Structures are given as C-alpha cells and as structure tokens.
C-alpha cells in the first residue's frame, strides 16, 4: 500500500519566517545582536557584500559630512573673533597671522564642502547601480529557487516581493545605504557641535544633545508607525500598481481602448491607492498633537541655548570669537534631532530589507527538500503512472482531482479530453512537478516523482502551454530556450522549425533567426498569435530533439489557421511518433489521432481507449465527438 501523505506534508507554500520587522527586541537580547539585526546595519552589510571598497568610500563620505560643515563654521567663528585685534595690530602682527590662518582653514573647508555635492552624486549613482544589480539578483534567485510555483500565488510572498523591489511604497531600496550615510553624517555633525558646545559650558552641550535625542525619538517612532501602516496595506497597493501597469503598458492597451477601460482603470487605481493609504493618513492625523508638543519642546531647547549664550555675552564672560563659534554650533547641534522627509523615505526603503531576507530565508531552503536524487535522463522508458491522485488548489473550495488513476505509456500519445475546468492543465502542472498532489503518487518507470531530481525532471517535460510566453528575444533564442547561452544544435533547430511550420516564417523575418520578436526593440517585429504558436511548438520539439522525454501540447492548434491546422494534423503522428506525448485539445480532429484518449470528468478518468474504442462505447467521449462533428457539418451546410 503506497504511503499516502497528508495534505500538509507535501510541497507546502514556503511560509516566510515572521518578519524581523515585527520581532520586538527582547530586553534579554544582547545589545550587540540587536545592533546587528538593525535594518540599517543589514542594509550596509548588503553594500559590503557588493563591494567592501565602496563601503569604505561611503564611510569616508560620512566623516567628511560630519566634520567639514562644523570645521568651516568654527574656523569662520575664530576668524570673526580675531578681526578686532588684527584690525588694531595689523595683518603682519601675531593677531593678523592668526586671522589669516583661521581664514585659510575656513576657505579650505568651504572649498571642500563645495565639491561635496558632485562627489555625493557620483557616489550615490555608483552605489545605486551596484545595489540594484545585487538586489535584483537576490530577488530573482529567491523567487526562482523553489521548483514549484505555489509561492507565486501566495499574497504574503507577493507583497514581500513588491516591497523588496521598492514598488509597494515607491521607495528605492538600492538608495538606502547612501541615505543612511547622509543621515549618519548629519547626526555625527550634530554630535560634534554638541561636543564643541561642551567646551563652552559642559552642561549646555549635554543638555542640547539630550534634548535633540529626546525630540528625535518620538518623531522616529511616529515615522515608523506611519510606514508600518503603509506597509500593512500591501494588497490594495499592489492591486493599485497592477491597475496602473494595465493602463500604461502595451499588454492590455488594445482591450483598454476597445472597451473604453481608461476611465475605469484610473478610477479603480485611485480607489485602491486611497484604500491603501487611508490608514497612514489616519495615523498622521492621530499623531498631529504629539508632533505639536515636540515642536514646542524644540523651540524651548533652542531658546535655552541661545539665551545662555546671550546672557554670557552680555556679561562679557565670553569673547567675540567664542560667541561667533558657539552661536553657529547651536543650530548645527540640531542635526542630532532633526527629522526630515528623507527619514520617512529611508524608513520606507528599509522595510525592503526584512522582506528581502524573509524571501531568501523562506524560498531558498524550500528548494532543497523537494529535490530527489534519481537522475531522470532518458525517462520515461516504460510509463508515467498517476496513482489515486487527489489535488485541490490552495484556498480552493473543491478538489480538482479525487482519486485520479491514469497511465501514460512511454512512446505513445495520450489525448486528454474534458469540459472547461475539468483539470487538464492542472494534470500537466502535477506532471511537471510545478505543484505536488495532496494525495496519491505519480510514478515515472516506478520511481515516485518526489525521488527524481526536480529540475532535471522538469527539463524532461517539454510543454507548449495554452498561454505560452512570448519572450522579447530573438527567434533563435525563443526556440532554444532550454540551452540559452550554450551551443545551439542548428540541425535540430531547423528540423524543429520545419516540423512546427515555423521555418518559412522565420526565414521571412528581416534578420531571420536573429530577429527580435518584439516591436518594443529596435528592428524588432511582433508575430501573429498563430505564428507565435508555431514558435512555441518549435521550442518544445527542439527540447525533445535534445533529449526531453515527454511532450505536452496544450491546445496546440487553437491559434492556427485552417491550412496550418490541417498541416499540423498531417504531421501530428510524425511529430509525436515514438515520443511520450500528452495532447490537450477541445478539437476532436486533433484528439482522434492520439494512440489513446482519456476523458477527465469529476476529478477522475472516466473513459480511456482509442478513438474507435471510445466511439463504440457510446459514452461521454462519443457524445462530445458527435456533437462537435454535427456542429461542423451544420456550419459547412450553411456556408
Ligand atoms: N492557480 C489556480 N488557483 C486556484 N484554482 C485554480 C487555479 N488554476 C486553475 N484552477 C481551478 O482548477 C480547475 C481546473 O482548472 P484547469 O485549468 O486545470 O482546467 P482545464 O481542464 O485545463 O480547463 P480549460 O479546458 O478551460 O483549459 C478549475 O476549476 C480552475 O478554476
């Protein structure tokens, strides 16, 4: 008796670990661990993994950002303080020399501050470019790690994916390291100003520092909670972006115009966007009063500092130079507590970090357990057996399969017939192990599918899907997809194109096999639906020529014209000869040519046999066949 695994144990949608965003630091947690887990540190570590040299350069930028503005102000203050003495004693006096030195230092620092802008621009562009490549590589790696596709229909995973790309909040995560650097530079600059204030009155520097930190904390928390409610609205925001893409990209452009969808799309986009942002706006309104309290505190602290300076100057306790330096340090110290739009943007960028990690942590290890050790090369030699298979889509309300038994004999063609929604395409999905059954087993030459190396088995199954992909690549690349970047077997390519009826079409293209099949690229050209279908068919036949063991054709002639369809039928036996093939079609002129026909109904195979056998049985197949034949004859008579 085969082991019947229960639903929960088979290839589940990988569950992301709880977002580190929501893991509140426990008081017992080591501070160093909390520091390492901080999203800022993780973003900077990401940059270090891209290029340690770049991180060091960014560090130097932070130092310059912290020191240069203060040095300029201090030097200018000192210069101001020396003016009276220099004016009195002359420039050649000691006081005059001190003035010149202070002016020279101020000039150099100011000059260096002037190049800060262009340097920051260049550095930001480099960091962004390197980060984008790394982030995209990690995302593609994570998303394509599982052999199955269930995770791509999991809303939580899709929210994470959209946010890790920066799409959900319209904030580019690749800009996070430089924004952190700029923010850190500002904070250090403010801290340095507080230290300078300490040299005047130790308590004033400390008080300013403590006040700014105290001011910054509640505003920081407000920003976090705003961004948190923004992030929580993942689904409506993702939907808003989807609608926006529908309205602005070519895919749906034709239907959007013909059906006049433009206004509806715009209204729907607005509705979902507003629904996504409403909690954030409510949060902002709730926070308004706290922000007002903080603003009053800022004013109070600043007044205390300025008042103290004014008082001491009035009583001649400090000289002009000290007064000039300290007066500039007061506003400089504000950088410790200042919060701007950049902080909000940075907070949004940083939400991508835990999402990126969660995707990698959940999807990449999920790829491993699904892999078996048996090499499927040359399989199937005998058969592929579906044994008591049960399957229901995650979140679905009904079983698609309930005790399905079917044997696909090696070297034979089997046609799958059934009404819309009977589960024909789903059966192919299980065969290619893009999903696993909830119950029962699929055996290839007696070996459970789970014991085969998943990726290699998937390469053994060449499928022309009903909704095959039209890649914006050259005609050649569209056909030789499974070996992209590797050597191309030109003879097999030509034969595949000839058998699928694509050869004449490709030879008629402006650059032949090298024509890009997309009008969105220079010299590119689009194809008609039927022409694309021939290319997709050639893709599967090329894979078969290169050793794939199973050919699956899902509605192979749906988009072909009458002549192409007739030519396909003539070649059908030749195309599928000796190949283990599965043909799904509602056209009985295709189906009848298969060696065996399986009728799928109510989650099981209800009839199985050759065309003649099933007609003789006078069951569902015979009824469907006669209805279609009658409709066809009727149609011809009317013409
Ligand atoms: N990704 C999915 N998530 C949930 N349910 C799905 C999904 N894909 C298909 N279904 C459902 O599973 C059932 C079988 O769908 P499937 O596409 O396999 O049918 P089919 O026989 O190929 O139909 P058709 O002849 O229309 O192509 C249908 O009820 C469909 O609604």
TrEMBL record:
GO terms for molecular function: ATP binding. SMART domains: AAA. It is a multi-pass membrane protein. The chain crosses the membrane at residues 46-68, 94-115, 291-314, 320-339. It is found in: Cell membrane. Residues 1-29 are annotated as: Disordered. Its main location: membrane. Keywords: ATP-binding, Membrane, Nucleotide-binding, Transmembrane, Transmembrane helix. Gene3D superfamilies: ABC transporter type 1, transmembrane domain, P-loop containing nucleotide triphosphate hydrolases. PROSITE patterns: ABC_TRANSPORTER_1, ABC_TRANSPORTER_2. This is ABC transporter ATP-binding protein. It comes from Catenulispora yoronensis.
